[in-house]
Amino acid sequence: MRCFTHPLLRRLLGLSPQSVPGGPSQSKGPICSPKWSSLRQSCSARPGLVTATDAVNYWKKVFETNGIPEARESSEYIVSFVLGAKTFQSLNSKSLYTPLTALQQEQIQQLSNKRLERMPVQYVLGEWDFQDLTLKMRPPVFIPRPETEDLVSLVVEEESWKCEKNSDLCFPVSVPHPVILEIGCGSGAISLSLLCKLPQSQVIAVDKEKTAVDLTRENAHRLQLQDRIHILHHDVSLSSAKQLLLWGPLDFIVSNPPYVFHEDMASLDAEILCYENLDALDGGDDGLRVIKTILALAPSLLKDSGL
User: Which of 82, 151, 174, 255 lies 20 to 30 Å from 145, alpha-carbon distance?
Assistant: First the structure.
């Protein structure tokens, strides 16, 4: 069994609250949401008409007035989502300057009101991209962080290295398809990305929260990966080895476990405290509550060459 000593580990364990989406924690305070009519009146070039660019600038100011972090990014994501685009930058000139319909304006208003309540953009939109996948998102299931994409890349690189090393042998041996266990699957971001990038792999995805298990299962079906993933509603403990070995010794155990010191939890952003599952972040007094369990369990689950 091996365990990576890698800059990623320091990044995952050393994340400050500011590293989690939303920026420094701020109180909600009173919400100031001017009427759309004020925006229509301000569009002097074409009175009464509102374009996507107008809407972004308008909601950016509203978000800033109410202390919403990442005000421009939030408004751009909401407007582009309503227009059927992934990013505001991907919209063409016609989409940017064509007047929005009444329905589009209403949809933008509804989504922006949710953001004004400090709901994370990922939950506001109900979906988010991770690696090359678009995954459904809903509270309180933990939102995958950008750093977690590095974790997926590490596993893919290691598996590629194993295959290259085997092909260099005078008498290459048959390499079994990798079996991967993810502890704390959340939305399924890590597991499903690995299934896509390692087509011969199979994954056991475990989470103690039923909402997370259900969302992983939903995303697996949407991506048509349900036949290669075993999803378990299970709280991993030192007595879990027997159940998790039903698929044989593992090639990889992968996890983005809780890592925030318990004493720091109260200083996290309102987006997190009000909407996300705090158990997915609270690492206990030393930040290692779940990590210690994973490390203690690993020797009984992994192959000798396991990671």
Answer: 82
Q: Name the phi and psi angles at 35, rounded to 5.
A: -70, 150
Q: For 226, what's the count of Cα atoms within 13 Å in the CB-facing half-sphere?
A: 11
With a CB cutoff of 8 Å and minimum separation 6, the contacts of 222 are 136
Quick one: 127 exposed, middle or buried, by C-beta within 10 A (0-12, 13-18, 19+)?
middle
As a whole number of angstroms, the distance between CA 27 and CA 39 comes to 27
Residue 117, pLDDT > 50, answer yes
pLDDT digits (tens, 9 = 90+) for 187-210: 999 999 999 999 999 999 999 999
DSSP-assigned letters across all residues of the chain: ------HHHHHHHT--GGGSTT-S-----------HHHHHHH-TTSTT---HHHHHHHHHHHHHHTT-SSHHHHHHHHHHHHTT-S-GGG--HHHHHSPPPHHHHHHHHHHHHHHHTT--HHHHHTEEEETTEEEE--TTSPPPPTTHHHHHHHHHHHHHHHHHHHHTSSSPPPPPPPEEEEES-TTSHHHHHHHHHSTT-EEEEEES-HHHHHHHHHHHHHTT-GGGEEEEE----TT-HHHHGGG-SBSEEE-----B-GGGGGGS-HHHHHHS-GGGTB--TTS-HHHHHHHHHHHHHB-TT--
Q: What is the pLDDT of residue 12?
A: 40
The two tokens of residue 283 are 């690492």
| Percent of the chain's residues with pLDDT above 70 | 81
Q: Determine the straight-line distance between the first and last CA of the chain, rounded to whole angstroms.
A: 6
pLDDT band of residue 113 (cuts 50, 70, 90) is very high
CB of 56 closer than 8 Å to CB of 72: yes
Catalytic machinery residues: 142, 256-257
